[in-house]
Structures are given as C-alpha cells and as structure tokens.
Specification:
The chain is α+β, with helices and mostly antiparallel strands and about 325 residues long. The protein has two domains: about 10-120, Roll (Thiol Ester Dehydrase, Chain A); about 140-325, Thiol Ester Dehydrase, Chain A. The protein is built from eight helices and twelve strands. The protein has helices spanning about 10-15, 40-55, 145-155, 160-180, 190, 225-240, 245-250, 325; strands spanning about 15-20, 25, 60-70, 80-90, 95-105, 110-120, 180-185, 215-220, 260-270, 280-290, 295-300, 305-320. A hairpin with a 2-residue loop joins β1 and β2. α2 packs antiparallel against α6 (about 225-240). Pfam families: 4HBT_3, 4HBT_3C.
Length: about 325
C-alpha cells in the first residue's frame, strides 16, 4: 500500500516494502522534476535500481558500476517496483540484473528501467590512487548561494522576472527538499538559472560547447544511515540535469526541444565509503551531439578533492517541426 503522507527525508522517500525474494516496492510514488512532461524524474528509477541491487548482495560487496537503459517514463501516481536476478557470485565479484517497473491499471507490469550492477569485495591493497580534477577552479561551497538565495538575488537585480521565478520553483523545487545544493558562480547554471534565463550572458559564451561546464555543491539534507542509502542518494542526484545540459549550454531550455530525456546511463562509483551527508562538488559537461542524441557526463568529488563517482548518459534531443505550436512540452 502506498503511503498517503509525503516523505520527509531521502531515506523515507526511497523506503521499500518487500514483496518477495529479491522483489521490492517503494512506499511512495516517484515525483516530477525538471522534465517538461508530467512524468517522474528519472533519478528515482536509477536510485531504486541501485538500492535494490545493493540489497541483493552481502554488505561486504561494494557497488562499482550500474549500467542500464531507461525503457519508458515512470508515472507519478503509483509506486516503483524493483526485482533483481543474480548472474555472478565469486569471492571477489558479484553481478546482478535489475528491473524497475510499475504496475499498470490493467494489472500488467511495464518496465521503466533495466540495468546490470557490478560489485567488488574491498581489495587488500591499492597500487595507484589518483583522480582528475574538475575543469575549472570552482568556488568553495561556503562562498556559493543556495538555490533560493540565488533566485531571490536574480529577482532583486532584475535579471529574471517574477513569472520566470514562478516557473523555476515547481520544476526543480522537489530536489531542494531532499538535498541542499549551491550552484558555483563560475558555472553556467548559476548564471542563466539552468537555462531558463537563456537571454542572460555567461562567462563561458565564447567557449565551444564541449568546453563549457556547470557545477554545484550538494549534500543530503537528512541522515543516511547505511552505505546503501548513500549509494542510492548519489545515484539519485547524479542523474539530474545531464540530459538538458546541452540545452543549458546553448542558450536554450526544455521547451526549445520536442524531446529531451535520458536514454541510457552508466553510474560508476570509485570509493567504497561515500558520505553524502557531507558536501560534494558535481560538475556537468557534454561531449557529443549527433543523430538526435547527446552524450554528457557528470562527475562528483568529495571536499578533499577525491573523485567518488561519475555518470555518463546518452539522451534524446529532438528538434521541433511544424507542430511546435501545438505540441510544445510533450515527449
């Protein structure tokens, strides 16, 4: 039974009830964020897959890769279901297949996402340890404004209209209830309100598209009591904004494309111990746009500068045709 009261923390938002062996259902339905269509934010499905996969193996196995495909949008009026199937189990590695689905009104199950999850037991020693830094030198989180404060500052300075601010809040407000985020002023998202204020100039306008970037500091607002909860929170956040970053970098917003959503993803976790209650820096870049698709990446560093995770995605980016006036915002 789906809970009637809204969740108050990330752990509660992603709470499971067990349906059977290696089968779970979320207590709460997924929510909408960012997408122009009234469908659930894809990060819900990715984090549900990550959590279900982690629950399928012993605690001594640590997730290092979750690769999969979005098979269809999730609805916001019903819970997500997850099932896993073990494929490999050795003393060092484990692999399982994960399917995330929703029960339809006719009683049939429709898959939303399918993925392979790989795990490894902690190694006894490390030969090399290194990670590439972010592209830019970004401001520390202490010197960055919260999303609310930045929105109010842009309003006071006349950079955006009250109508624009009203459009922004419902699109991205859900994430702000779960995560505390502060956009770095050097990044594009802070300068053009994630592309919504597309007429505003940015300090990166002269750069080629593949050299542009945006970054933010984020941490979970609530406690994350287990390693599984931390990994699920990372998976949830890392999916955000990758698909429409090319639009944001090109003075466009979601309504400027007929379809803009993720097709596949590869989440790679580089550290066994992730503490997402602490501040982490996320940077988003884009690499390729061709054949109606884009390929973009987000990377995540802890405050000490260690890269703890990355996510790459191919996404659909479909232009409008003659039907633009009648179908704007539909996928």
């Amino acid at each position: 039974m789906v809970a009637s009261s809204p969740p108050r923390s990330f752990t509660e938002t992603l709470a499971f009830e067990e349906l059977g062996e290696n089968q779970w259902q979320t207590i709460h339905p997924p929510q909408r964020m960012g997408n122009a269509a009234n469908i659930a934010y894809g990060g819900f499905a990715v984090s549900v897959a990550a959590k279900a996969a982690c629950l399928s193996v012993p605690d001594s196995y640590h997730l290092y890769t979750l690769m999969g495909n979005f098979l269809g949008p999730a609805l916001t009026d019903r819970p997500l279901r997850a099932s896993t199937r073990p494929i490999r189990k050795t003393r060092t590695f484990a692999t399982c297949q994960v399917e995330v689905s929703q029960l339809q009104d006719n009683g049939e199950s429709r898959p939303c996402l399918v993925a392979l999850a790989d795990f490894q037991v902690k190694e006894k020693g490390v030969l090399l340890e290194y990670s590439a830094p972010p592209r830019l030198q970004y401001s520390h989180w202490k010197d960055c404004l919260s999303a609310k404060d930045r929105l109010e500052k842009m309003l006071r300075e006349g950079k955006i209209s009250p109508e624009m601010a009203a459009r922004f809040k419902p699109s991205f407000g859900m994430a702000d209830t779960l995560f505390e985020s502060r956009h770095c002023p050097e990044g594009i998202a802070a300068q053009n309100l994630m592309g919504l204020a597309k007429s505003l100039p940015t300090t990166q306008d002269a750069l080629p598209l593949t050299q542009k970037s945006t970054a933010d500091w984020s941490r979970c607002r609530s406690g994350l009591p287990s390693a599984t909860d931390n990994i699920a929170a990372v998976a949830f956040l890392m999916d955000g904004a990758i698909s429409f970053a090319p639009l944001m970098f090109s003075r466009m917003f979601l309504g400027d494309s007929k379809a803009c959503s993720s097709l596949d993803f590869a989440l790679r976790v580089f550290r066994n111990e992730v503490q997402f209650e602490e501040w982490h820096l996320r940077e988003i870049v884009t690499h390729v746009g061709a054949e109606g698709r884009t390929y973009s990446e987000s990377r995540l560093w802890d405050e000490g500068g260690a890269c703890v995770a990355c996510m790459t995605q191919q996404s659909i980016l479909r232009p409008w045709g003659e039907e633009k006036g009648n179908e704007r915002g539909k996928l």
